[in-house]
Amino acid sequence: MAETDRIFKIGTRGSPLALAQASEVRARLIAAHGLSEADFAIEVISTAGDRILDRPLSEVGGKGLFTKEIEAALLDGRIDLAVHSSKDMATAIPDGLHISAFLEREDVRDAFIGRDARTIADLPEGATVGSASLRRQALLKRMRPDLRTIMFRGNVQTRLRKLAEGHADATLLAIAGLNRMEMAHHATDILSPEEFPPAPGQGAICIESRDADTRVDELVAAIAHRETTHTLHAERAFLKVLDGSCRTPIAARAVLAHDGRMSFHGMILRPDGTEVHEIHEAGDADAATEIGERAGRAVLAKAGPRFFDGWGEPQP
Ligand SMILES: NCc1[nH]cc(CCC(=O)O)c1CC(=O)O
């Protein structure tokens, strides 16, 4: 076997956060298996989400935007494992691929980053908040209908630069990403996950690989995290029931207690924050998928079919 055939090729996007995540996965695999950096190659793959920066993701086509090109590289063997933010993963995984591990979750919460204001409550009447996330925009408007939201696309560094340049008075980012880049000092406040629940999957890195490649399954099993896997199954099941509209703001957070009980909080909102439907569910962690599905069906029933009228399809 040629020397290069024994190297695991890790595919990732090229943003500083994506590279930090790929390095973290590599470091954990090295530690778990007594391997060395020479056993891995990190392949940077550009995705549509990295290239299209002038439109909201919800208009370009939603979730698959950060993963499609990476999944193509997996399928044709250019890479052996892909490192993703679970939050960016669609619920449908292409035939021939699967999620082979969820790593231990970082902080799930969102951070508030203000220029002058330190908290949402501090923002003056009519202030402007930059965000590309429909969920964050809707949650903000629910709390503060007076706020204006503007689109902030690009990687974390780009968004912080736009904020510093005065394009907005504040922005919101996942603390997990800031922590992974040792940039948590930018946060001026941390939002309550009850009042401001995260996106399904936020804060958890996942690894995707080929169904046929059991070698990768064996490799990554050592760094998979059981509790995170359960919570992600519930949150992704919730998302799947609600799928169909990438223009619906959706929030979800499953928490696993030490006794194996899972509690689940899900929410769907109108983009302008004027209508909110919330659900709380609980059950055994082994029934994670059913808990998420039950919550999804219950929140759909609460919202009623009219809820999705008017923003179900991307605008032409
Ligand atoms: N597409 C953006 C994205 N995808 C994952 C994260 C944060 C890291 C995470 O949730 O694991 C971010 C940036 C942000 O929301 O601040």
Automatic annotation (TrEMBL):
S-(dipyrrolylmethanemethyl)cysteine PTM positions: 246
Domain Porphobilinogen deaminase N-terminal, first and last residues per copy: 9-217
Pfam assignment, any one: Porphobil_deamC
An annotated Gene Ontology molecular function: hydroxymethylbilane synthase activity
Role: Tetrapolymerization of the monopyrrole PBG into the hydroxymethylbilane pre-uroporphyrinogen in several discrete steps.
Other observations noted: The porphobilinogen subunits are added to the dipyrromethane group.
Entry's family note: Belongs to the HMBS family.
NCBIfam families: hemC (TIGR00212)
Name of the protein described by the UniProt record: Porphobilinogen deaminase
Species: Fulvimarina uroteuthidis
Gene name linked to the record: hemC
